[in-house]
Amino acid sequence: MEKGRGLQRIGDLIPKIANMPRPEGTTSDGLTTRESGSATDAFATMQPMQTGTQLGEHGSAMRRNSLAIVATASEGSLQHDPAQLLTPSMRSSLATTWNDAGDEYGWNGRVIRYELNQPRSAGELAEAIDIAEASLLPMSKREVLAELARVRAMTVSRDISMDLQLVLAAYADELMKYPVDAVREVLRSWPRKEKFWPSMSELIARLDPLVASRHALLEGLRRGYREPEAVSFQRSTQRRIV
């Protein structure tokens, strides 16, 4: 690798990042406790959901179950209709709106909106939200840096005047806004399809469609059931008459 451009060998990258000064309250990876470790560790440090669920043993079991469900989910269900991860009764209570997208391989539609069309119990709704949140957990910063280093080793670099470890750290900060499987899929496939090192905007353009349905599911579940205006008006009128 040319030293004139201020770049460093990939083999030297991770140890140097690990030894960089870090702010108080971070781990040896230079991460906050919520960012470090595996997906399971990240989930365990999330704030309790405000959905009426009880903390303690039951809550921990529900989180472990949610992680297991997401870990075994197919790529298609995560990217196109993540509601497939939920129980049959919860799925039957969700109205879906699909886009009409396509690519070179044909139709590639994804759900862009979920709406609860009937009320569900607080416990069932909490479990569904737990699964939706688990599907959006990021990988650790150390893992993202390793994936980026792999891409860097397999692509031709555009002229980067900044120190390489700072460039990869900045990329990692952005990529940690996306779930584990989506980041891995995009970064692993990049060198097979592209010759040059990607810009952040190019990665985001591939990541956003992969996770849009998951965000839509979480938003729909958090909104909860909303009684149709016509029914609400009718009930209000009946109460006034009585």
Report on the structure:
This protein is mainly alpha-helical and 242 residues long. It has two domains: 3-25 and 139-209, no CATH class; 39-137 and 211-235, no CATH class. The chain is built from eleven helices and four strands. It has helices spanning 13-18, 39-44, 57-71, 75-80, 88-92, 122-134, 141-154, 164-175, 180-193, 200-223, 229-241, and strands spanning 94-98, 102-103, 106-107, 111-116. Helix 6 packs antiparallel against helix 10 (200-223) and helix 9 (180-193) runs antiparallel to helix 10.
Order of helices and strands: HHHHHEEEEHHHHHH
Structural class: mainly alpha
User: Based on CA inertia axes, which overall geometry fits?
Assistant: elongated
> What's the main sheet like?
2 strands, antiparallel
Distance between the termini: 83 Å
The tally of beta strands, per DSSP, is 4
Return the average pLDDT rounded to an integer.
Answer: 78
β content, as a range?
Answer: 5-15%
Q: Helix count?
A: 11
Strand order of the largest sheet: 1-4
Gyration radius, rounded: 22 Å
The structural domain count equals 2
Which spans have pLDDT < 50 for at least 5 consecutive residues? Answer: 1-7, 17-55
Task: Offer a concise description of the structure.
The protein is 53% helix and 6% strand. The protein is mainly α and 242 residues long.
Could you give the topology of this structure?
Elements: H1 13-18, H2 39-44, H3 57-71, H4 75-80, H5 88-92, E1 94-98, E2 102-103, E3 106-107, E4 111-116, H6 122-134, H7 141-154, H8 164-175, H9 180-193, H10 200-223, H11 229-241
Helix pairs in contact: 3-6, 6-10, 7-8, 7-9, 9-10
